[in-house]
Amino acid sequence: MSEVLFYRLERTTLDDVLPRLLERTRERGRRAVVRVGSAERMQALDAHLWTYSEQSFLAHGTAEMGHKSRQLIYLTTEDENPNRAEVLFLVGGAMAEDWRAPQLGGFARIVLLFDGRDPSALSTAQAAWRNAKEAGHDVTYWKQSDAGKWEKQS
């Protein structure tokens, strides 16, 4: 089973947090798939990852760009892993349809980021937490403190 990390965003946005997590993933020599809940949000993230910092950018690809298997970071709205990634990020409302699905076992780590200020996103993430735990994944839940630091809740 995979390690599943739930990140409840309270003080920062996905646009602030995702690039840092992807940088850490790359520093560890791992490939990533970022599954996004909508094509519009994926296009916004695509542009953001190229420009989020004046000092850096995150090279990545999409189906539109081609060469799926060669991408170190691959953005998609589909349930796929064309670049043999070890880490799956679920963002912008994307969820695993079935936490028992064999293809999820191919990921060493699954990171679900959600807006803790949105009652619908919070409710969906809580259901996903229960389903992932029942499926046997090693699940942890992280919440931002008032100071913006990540604190493990369970």
- The strand order across the widest sheet is 3-2-4-5-1-6-7
Per CATH, the architecture is: 3-Layer(aba) Sandwich
Total helical elements: 3
SSE series: EHEHEEEHEE
Instruction: Quickly count the domains.
Output: 1
The percent range for helix content is: 25-40%
**Beta strand count:** 7
The first-level CATH class name: Alpha Beta
Largest sheet: 7 strands, mixed
CATH topology name, in short, is Rossmann fold
* Separation, N- and C-terminal Cα atoms: 18 Å
Radius of gyration: 15 Å
Strand content: 15-25%
Weakly predicted, low-confidence segments: none
| Average pLDDT metric | 94
Shape, please? globular
How do you describe this structure in short?
The protein is α/β, with parallel strands linked by helices and 154 residues long.
Describe, in plain words, how this protein is organized in 3D.
By secondary structure, this protein is of the alpha/beta class. The chain has one domain (3-152): DNA polymerase III subunit chi (Rossmann fold), CATH 3.40.50.10110. Helix content is 28%, strand content 25%. The chain contains three helices and seven strands, in the order βαβαβββαββ. It has helices at 14-27, 39-51, 119-134, and strands spanning 3-9, 32-36, 73-76, 87-91, 109-115, 138-144, 150-152. Strands 3-2-4-5-1-6-7 form a seven-stranded mixed beta sheet, with helices on both faces. β6 (138-144) and β7 (150-152) form a beta hairpin. It is globular and about 35 Å long. The mean pLDDT is 94.
Break the fold down into its secondary structure elements and pairings.
Layout: E1 3-9, H1 14-27, E2 32-36, H2 39-51, E3 73-76, E4 87-91, E5 109-115, H3 119-134, E6 138-144, E7 150-152
Parallel strand pairs: 1-5, 1-6, 2-3, 2-4, 4-5
Antiparallel strand pairs: 6-7
